[in-house]
Specification:
- By secondary structure, the chain is α/β, with parallel strands linked by helices.
- The protein has 13 helices and 17 strands.
- It has an 8-stranded parallel beta sheet. A 4-stranded antiparallel beta sheet has the order 3-2-1-17. A 3-stranded antiparallel beta sheet has the order 4-15-14, with helices on one face.
- Helix 6 links the parallel strand 6 and strand 7.
- Helix 6 runs parallel beside helix 7.
- The radius of gyration is 20 Å and the shape is globular.
- The two termini are 18 Å apart.
């Protein structure tokens, strides 16, 4: 049985084409952790994880804490382990250090990539298969003046996107004006969502959403703070628009609370935030058992995390919204030369004929864009 003998951890930094602005932060570059695991036969598995804003998540993780957790806790525990039992390995890592799901996501990706390569099958097959090989994705619009948001919305519509998500910033007048400006330019039939990233209290959120109901809003994602599920429940009980829980759902315990309080119609799954693809699939199945719909967000991954996300999203039977197409939407460059997916005019096409994640990683670019690197080998 093949065993892990080496791990490399990289802090990779690639600038955004334009700084990404939300209610929590302005982010000039993606700062992601890339994990390289090597087996005793030379097989390599890749993982990725990252955080967009230093105020997201509220648990306080940063790229630096993720790097350190991998370096000092997770990677030492992987030495000598087999990637053919990823569920067992991930459960053992939870006993070694609780939480730190962003860091564990990188391990999850790399283990599944290795397992797929050893078994000569795709990660999507390891997860149970895919329902579709093509699907449309939405695109979020950073905070800006209503006029600038509308101009960008028109550009994205012309690029082929069929659904857009406006970011909210906590100013009810500004957010309402932006939505109305975009609606005026795109017409009543175009699907528009709003995502304030938890910027409102329950009362203000209800006030804004009721005004937006008159303008055919498709859904609202996380209008209230992520750690206040009761506030989210109050909003859902008082509006007719579909409510999506994102920052409120990281773990199975979070999902239980959302279900018990009837706090959402849909949950937004992002493998980065929940510990990877295996954990996210469990959340998906549980949510569906209770009648919740599923959307996927991304945390804006580079090519490794994007491939993992598409293997996961294609296996969701009733996918409400997919929130990411490819790194080139956001970043000036990528670290992957060949991918298992293509993205054109707002639509992802996924191929599952390659083993593992189905990507070819450019290790020279990883080194070029890395600001920190650590490695560990089995003695």
């Amino acid at each position: 049985m093949r065993k892990i003998i080496k791990s490399d951890i990289f802090l990779v930094e690639i600038p955004y084409k334009q700084p990404y602005k939300t209610s929590t932060n302005i982010t000039p570059k993606g700062r992601h952790i890339v994990l390289r695991l090597e087996l005793d036969d030379g097989t390599i598995g890749w993982g990725e994880t990252g955080i967009i804003s230093r105020r997201y998540p509220s648990q306080g993780d940063t790229p630096e804490t993720i790097f350190c957790v991998l370096k000092h806790y997770l990677c030492p525990s992987l030495m000598g382990r087999s990637p053919l039992q990823p569920e067992i390995v991930m459960a053992d890592l939870e006993r070694i250090i609780c939480g730190h799901y962003f860091a564990k996501c990188a391990v999850d990706h790399a283990l599944l990539d290795l397992q797929g390569k050893l078994l000569n099958t795709s990660v999507s097959n390891l997860l149970g298969g895919i329902y579709r090989s093509q699907y449309d994705v939405s695109r979020s619009l950073p905070l800006a003046s209503p006029k600038d948001v509308a101009i960008r919305a028109l550009e994205l519509r012309d690029e082929g996107y069929k659904r857009l998500t406006l970011k909210g910033g906590g100013d009810i007048d500004h957010d309402y004006a932006s939505f109305c400006e975009v609606r005026k330019h795109l017409g009543d039939a175009f699907e528009l969502e709003l995502d304030p990233n938890g910027a409102y209290n329950a009362l203000t959120a209800v006030t804004l959403i009721k005004k937006l109901e008159e303008h055919n809003i498709f859904a609202v994602e996380q209008p209230t703070p992520g750690n206040d599920i009761r506030a989210l429940s109050e909003v859902r009980s008082r509006v007719s628009v579909s409510i999506i829980a994102d920052e409120s759902v990281f773990t199975a315990r979070d999902l239980r609370d959302v279900i018990n309080l009837n706090a959402a119609d849909t949950i937004c799954l992002k493998p980065f935030k929940s510990g990877g693809l295996l954990a996210s699939r469990k959340l998906q199945v549980t949510a569906e058992c209770f009648g919740l719909k599923i959307s996927t967000g991304s945390m804006h991954p580079f090519g490794i995390g994007t491939a993992a996300l598409h293997h996961f999203a294609a296996g969701i039977s009733d996918l409400m919204t997919a929130g990411y197409g490819c790194p080139q939407e956001r970043f000036v460059d990528d670290i992957v030369d060949e991918t298992c997916y293509t993205f054109h005019e707002g639509t992802v096409s996924l191929s599952i004929d390659r083993p593992g994640l189905g990507i070819v990683v450019n290790e020279n670019k990883i080194k070029e864009y890395s600001s920190d690197h650590a490695f560990l080998t089995k003695v």
